Amino acid sequence: MPGPVREVRLWDPLLRGFHWLLAFFVTAGWCLGQFGPAKMTLHFWCGYVVAGLLLFRLVWGFVGPAPARFSHFIRGPGAIAGYMRGMFLREPSHWPGHNPLGALSVIAMLAVLAAQVTSGLISDPDDYINVGPLASYVSSATRAKAVGWHGLGANLILLLVALHIGVILFYRFWKREDLVRPMLTGVKQVRDRES
To answer: Given the DSSP bridges, would you call strands 5-9 and 187-191 parallel, antiparallel or unpaired?
Structure first.
């Protein structure tokens, strides 16, 4: 049986800072990529910041506090199926960190953002202005394909962000569980579970 609900300090300040900085720079980069200006200098700088943030998250996923570590929240198919059986119950999950489905979304977002940064670094849209700084290190065919990959990545990012916000709203209004406050304060109500 699950244990009682208790408040714990879950998300460390660096992880919370990473989350909000990533949200800001991904949003800014996406908007600049979609709506201009034609010279993409600010878009590039947003991409560089996102690359640095992703590098930080990769390192923090191995050496950060336990809740930030990939080993703490990446689960197998059994845990995912078990979590899904109670997902639509109208009660908070009080999960201690990322739940098994949330872990999948974290990995998907990090992977898509890493691919997006990579495609941006090697893109050459043939405008002689917005050429990625590493484009000269790949073939011209790869540079040209990277432009299409970067456009596809922008759509995937939009889809993942919409899904992320939708899930947050689902938890807030259906499950009556606030997932935003813990990412602001670091404190979350959790329930101890048997391993």
So the answer is: antiparallel
